[in-house]
Amino acid sequence: MFVLETIxxxxxxxxxxxxxxxxxxxxxxxxxxxxxxxxxDLARKHGLxxxxxxxxxxxxxxxxxxxxxxxxxGTAAIYLSDHDANxxxxxxxxxxxxxxxxxxxxxxxxxxxxxxxxxxSYEICERKNPGSPFAVFSGDSLFVGSAGRPDLLGDDxxxxxxxxxxxxxxxxxxxxxxxxxxxxxxxxGSACGADIGDRLSSTIGYERRTNSFxxxxxxQAFQEFVVGDAPPVPWHYPELKKVNAAGxxxxxxxxxxxALPPEDFRKAMLQPRVTTIDxxxxxxxxxxxxxxxxxxxxxxxxxxxxxxxxxxxxxxxxIVDDDTDIQRVQRLIVRTGHSNxxxxxxxxxxxxxxxxLPLDTIPQIPVQDLQKRLVHDPELQVLDVRSPxxxxxxxxPGAQHHFIADMRDRIRGLDKTHAxxxxxxxxxxxxxxxxxMKARGFQDVSNVPGSWSAWTTMGYDIEQTVEAQA
Length: 470
What we know:
Mean pLDDT: 94
Keywords: Hydrolase, Metal-binding
Number of strands: 23
Low-confidence stretches: none
Domain Rhodanese: 270-361, 376-464
GO molecular function: hydrolase activity; metal ion binding; sulfur dioxygenase activity; thiosulfate-cyanide sulfurtransferase activity
Pfam families: Lactamase_B (PF00753), Rhodanese (PF00581)
CATH superfamily of the largest domain: Ribonuclease Z/Hydroxyacylglutathione hydrolase-like
CATH class of the largest domain: Alpha Beta
EC number: 3.-.-.-
């Protein structure tokens, strides 16, 4: 029996796959994430032995789990592209048209450059219908409603990679039969492609009719579309590419993390290159937190935001809502390369406050109060920390745009003595931004829970930029 399991990693919207045959008992994993027990557990469930681990390309948005999975299993080899690749660790080379037999089906490699030079996709064919793929693992070349961006290796390669991507889409994918299913490397929310669709799979026929990346009659128009409209490259992507090319550390268990009593935690905060991350909700954080802590709430998307905002060599101290949450939070953080964990606050904020240690607060302003304050307090400055695309779609009247990702190293153009209120779509990113500002010496910073969602629900006035109106 043919087995296909799709593993969605929330927060980074990454998709990996287990594909196998219960007749031969052989299976492959495609693009595994760091916490690899999910694959061995699924293989055991289906009575399969994982013999092959395929990397479609050198990933930029998460730490690859290939080496960890191979080490854990002892039965699988890693297969890496041999096309313009710069892998620095051992793996079996794969070239275009290489075929791998799994009994009732086979996988055939196809060189599909554009997102990266070395990118491979893998066709699936039934044994009884060789040469007629019914599905393809498209990696980051073709997504649902989108395609892989060609600019992650820098502007100097964007032109040549966009040309290669055009050839991949138009000379390979569009020549497949309409019924062929695509299983991409990412879903909606990933920055590896623009506006990826919500569905986790699609067909060539559906994409042919609906995917805007597949509607350009010439290369020049296509290049202007994919490069000119590309969102900013997340800061941590080039760093994670280096990690994945060199060969990520083998992770057989989560990094050891010490439970620190309040006074020891306070002393650890004084060490150089230490960041304290408070993973509680924005309301709990606003009501009282350790001075200098950054609020990145315990939600799947914290993986991306920790990766986006902090260097990989940064030492992390963690504050969780409950001590039993620590392993789940660690898994989210490790996925984007952060494994240097100094410790966590034993007993959480209750132990900190019981020890009589200092507390800081960030006021939480409901949209109803914000709307009234904007009428009576013209000096109050509202900061929209959403992405440029969100800002262009409409914003609170009089707001300034300061995308949170640009606050990573320094916050430019703002007076630390002024009063600021930060908002985003829901308040999650605004709480990150307001906590960053507070930690960097801004004296009067507030957060808006509910943020844009609550503002529009209440029917308050919105403002659009001239470009959006045009």
